[in-house]
Design brief:
353 residues, alpha/beta, Rossmann fold, 5-stranded antiparallel beta sheet, 37% helix
């Protein structure tokens, strides 16, 4: 068994979120640093890999939003956690069909992993695309941030309540074996949980502190430059008070503390918390809708019909099978939610009404 010391950074005990952040994103040993996790040969499948129609709809939505902003001639587009670059490849090819929009746009990929960046650069060779590790380059013009399965991949904290006392979950390393232990939550953590109204009917809480830190950087740019944030992820609307941390390896469930560094670790996104946090930071938030509702409103069914008219039966069957995976309630259609936050009051936003 490989030594797990490298993920503990010379500590024997650390908060759950910090540990999994090291496991996933360590520059040398992190899961996302050393492999391409997406696709049949990886550990999981994402919507852009399921069907190009998903990516086309995101492109149409972004162009529609640019039109909503009165077609600014300096428009920044940032994909958060672009994975293997599949979504952005279709985005750019779609954008090119709208020259006025394409000439007005600046295209950015926000990526931490060197391995994924290398994969993206092979797939995306346009001089118009830039890679960024922070948002300092965004200085002029409105910006639209969007992320597909971005937030679920940021590790979370977990808290439990026992005999009226709130404890935070930590992980401990002994003899190269990981165990979980509970430590009394700090006053600072308790105040934050209370401020975000997470104590309602509470015995167990998942709290995306690292995710909200990322969100704060995004909010700051939106408030300064104008624009918005579109997030698509799997999650829930009402606080669940259950453990949603999960690990996947080769498309199958994996024990959370097995295959450390070679299995993906994610959690369900609390969309109600996201909405409250964005609103508390003075952004406007549209109705949270399902992926199925969002894609249908943009016109994915009409697009599928147009594309399929030129296809042979076998290809047409494959197209509609993939479409079913995106839209059906039993697959991605309902469990995936879509949230959009923005600075200005917009009466109508494509996909949400």
């Amino acid at each position: 068994m490989k030594s797990l010391n490298k993920y503990f950074y010379n500590k024997k005990i650390m908060p759950l979120d910090n540990f999994f952040n090291n496991v996933l994103y360590d520059k040398k040993f992190g899961y996302y640093t050393n492999k391409d996790p997406i696709g049949k040969k990886g550990d999981f499948i994402t919507s852009p890999v399921v069907s190009f129609l998903f990516s086309e709809m995101i492109a149409i939505w972004i162009i529609s939003y640019w039109e909503n902003l009165k077609k600014p001639n300096n428009f920044n587009i940032v994909e958060l956690g672009p994975g293997n670059g599949e979504l952005f490849k279709i985005l750019e090819s779609t954008f090119k069909k709208f020259p006025e929009f394409y000439n007005s746009s600046n295209l950015y990929l926000y990526e931490k992993s060197k391995t994924l960046k290398t994969i993206q650069k092979k797939k995306l060779q346009s001089k118009k695309i830039s890679w960024i590790s922070n948002f300092d380059k965004l200085k002029k013009g409105p910006v639209i941030f969007f992320g597909n399965e971005f937030f679920d991949a940021i590790p979370i904290k977990q808290f439990e309540k026992k005999n009226g006392i709130v404890y935070e979950k930590f992980v401990k390393l002994k003899n190269n074996t990981i165990t979980t232990v509970l430590k009394k939550a700090s006053k600072k953590e308790l105040e934050e949980l209370k401020r975000l109204k997470l104590f309602k009917n509470f015995h167990f809480i998942e709290f995306p502190k690292l995710g909200l830190n990322e969100l704060q950087k995004i909010i700051k740019k939106i408030k300064k430059l104008n624009g918005g944030l579109l997030l698509i992820d799997y999650g829930y609307l009402k606080q669940k008070n259950i453990n949603t941390l999960q690990s996947v390896k080769r498309h199958k469930k994996n024990n959370l503390f097995s295959n450390i560094g070679s299995a993906d670790v994610t959690s369900l996104v609390n969309f109600d918390l996201l909405r409250n946090y964005l609103i508390s930071n003075k952004l406007k938030v549209n109705n949270i809708v399902t992926q199925s509702f969002f894609l249908k409103k943009i016109g994915i069914l009409n697009r599928a019909e147009i594309v399929s008219n030129k296809m042979k039966f076998k290809d047409k069957s494959d197209l509609y099978f993939r479409l079913k995976r995106l839209l059906h309630p039993k697959y991605m259609g309902d469990i995936f939610k879509v949230i959009f936050a923005h600075k200005n009051n917009l009466i109508k936003v494509l996909g949400f009404n």
